[in-house]
Design brief:
CATH architecture of the largest domain: 3-Layer(aba) Sandwich
Bound molecules: nicotinamide-adenine-dinucleotide
Helix content: 40-55%
Number of helices: 17
Radius of gyration: 26 Å
Distance between the termini: 70 Å
Strand content: 15-25%
Number of domains: 2
Largest sheet: 7 strands, mixed
CATH topology of the largest domain: Aldehyde Dehydrogenase, Chain A, domain 1
Oligomer: single chain
């Protein structure tokens, strides 16, 4: 059977060229349709995510369905403001030239999404693509067969299939998609596949967004309320059983506070899950057997001391939160992004040692810090690098739709959420419109140049530079 993928791409490309996606009211309608889809089909979405991921219902409604509805509706309302042509402030003599910045859709785009927050990570980029006036192919993760199949069924019922298509499949299909030319590729997933995506994008010079992960550390200042820090960290870690790119990956704390922190984790674990997490409907499962085995292998090789031993059930791919103390550099738990409900604690002798530990590794997606000390916070802002920096909480930053979400270095590049996603799929198209009356002003540029013209044209060379004060 010949593949339909190139035909789908060509059809969407033709739709884009036709101008169908240009009018703002049309884009707003598609955004409201997307919100309607999430609202009307939420039970089917929940059932699918329950089958594929064992996702707790409240987690699905709050973090997947609710956030997509809210962001689609808000984006539709704010779109006229975002899409306005901008007129930059320019030098007086250039005002006559009518400098303008048009907001142009980039074209036909490809969105490749992962399994862990499949609703939000598929539709959040799509909201931006629709708002920008692009056509798009959405490629969901093959690790969620029920959910991905559901998308193929429900998306065409709500969104115009001439402009938006779901293409399902695994590596061969994604590879085929990546061989084609796209006007932007938005990939969310791991760094290894990101390199494959980046090479494919380079062949067509396609612009690219890479939303990746990594090990997001937590630094706890000894003077902070350890009990509260433990509660907030454990809550952030329990979302989707730790399978989220912004999960707290490991904790750095001064050695003499480590046991207090462990006790606080135990206390809050018992409060969150009075009967344990193994059968709790509020705690998710591990996505696949291979991820489950990976986590068990990391745990079996750690030289740290397991202080909160999570029970495991291989048949149901369930693993309770597990806390390991006295983890040192080189340990299995520090090898790679954990992406599961295991939390290592790395004791340090000073805050500076914690900062050095973070700076010795690739730039994380988020750096979490618990401290009331404003100068320490500013020190961390200026002395470390990470996609985001969050003080005194975990995970909650995702609720602020106006903040740009992105990585840096190994955690990726390119921005998303609301207007930032719109901007990602929008080309800033510069323009001037030179009136005939400007001829007098422009006269000196024409050849041959008089001595006076050369002086005027080269004036910038002699721009006064402020004296060196360092
Ligand atoms: P995944 O296995 O579902 O893969 C993501 C996508 O890549 C899928 O659509 C898949 O089909 C495609 N893919 C897989 N192998 C491929 C190949 N060889 N060639 C082309 N495409 C291929 O998801 P994952 O990568 O395991 O996702 C987890 C990772 O994503 C973690 O590292 C996590 O931190 C990161 N993540 C980042 C964000 C963010 O916004 N920064 C959000 C969620 C997850």
């Amino acid at each position: 059977m010949t593949s339909t993928i190139p035909k789908i791409r060509d059809a969407l490309h033709a739709t884009f060229r036709s101008g169908l996606t240009r009018p703002l009211p049309w884009r707003q309608h598609q955004l409201y349709q997307l919100a309607r889809m999430a609202q009307n089909e939420r039970e089917l979405i929940y059932d699918a995510l329950q089958i594929d991921l064992g996702k707790p219902k409240t987690e699905v409604l709050v973090n997947e369905v609710g956030s997509i509805i809210a962001r689609a509706v808000k984006s539709a309302k704010q779109l006229p403001e975002w899409a306005k042509t901008e007129y930059p402030d320019v030098a007086d003599r250039q005002k006559l030239w009518k400098p303008a910045i048009y907001k142009a859709p980039k074209g036909n785009v490809l969105i490749i999404s992962p399994w862990n927050y499949p609703m939000v990570l598929s539709f959040q980029p799509l909201i931006g693509a629709i708002a920008a006036g692009c056509t798009a192919v959405l490629k969901p993760s093959e690790l969620l067969p029920t959910f991905s199949q559901l998308l193929e069924e429900i998306v065409p019922k709500y969104l115009d299939p001439n402009a938006y298509r779901v293409v399902n499949g695994a590596v061969p299909e994604t590879t085929e998609l990546l061989e084609l030319q796209w006007d932007h590729i938005f990939y969310t997933g791991n760094g290894k596949v990101a390199r494959i995506v980046a090479s494919a994008a380079a062949k067509h010079l396609s612009p690219l967004t890479l939303e990746l992960g990594g090990k997001s550390p937590v630094i706890i200042d000894s003077a902070y309320d350890i009990d509260l820090a433990a509660k907030r960290i454990l809550w952030g870690k329990c979302n989707n059983a730790g399978q989220i790119c912004v999960a707290p990956d490991y904790v750095l704390i001064q050695r003499d506070k480590q046991d207090e922190l462990v006790k606080a984790f135990q206390k809050h674990y018992n409060a969150f899950f009075p009967k344990g997490a193994l059968d709790s409907p509020s705690f998710g499962s591990i996505v696949s057997d291979s991820h489950y085995k990976r986590l068990i292998s990391l745990l079996s090789r750690t030289k740290g001391e397991v202080v909160l031993r999570g029970r495991a059930d291989a048949a149901r791919r369930r693993l309770e939160p597990t806390i390991v103390k006295d983890v040192v550099d080189g340990d299995s738990l520090l090898e790679e992004e954990i992406f599961g409900p295991i939390l290592p604690i790395v004791p340090v002798d000073s805050l500076q040692q914690a900062i050095n530990f973070v700076n010795a590794r690739s730039h994380p997606l988020v750096l979490y810090t618990f401290s009331d000390n404003e100068s320490l916070k500013q020190q961390l802002v200026s002395e470390t690098q990470s996609g985001g920096i969050v003080f005194n909480d975990t995970f909650q930053q995702l609720a602020v739709s106006e903040l740009p979400f992105a990585g840096v270095g190994e955690s990726g590049y390119g921005y998303q959420f609301m207007k930032h996603t719109y901007d990602t799929f929008t080309q800033l198209r510069s323009s001037i419109d030179m009136p005939k009356e400007a001829e007098a002003q422009l006269a000196m540029r024409y050849l041959p140049h008089s001595e006076e013209a050369v002086k005027a044209l080269t004036a910038a060379v002699y721009t006064p530079i402020p004296p060196n004060r360092l």
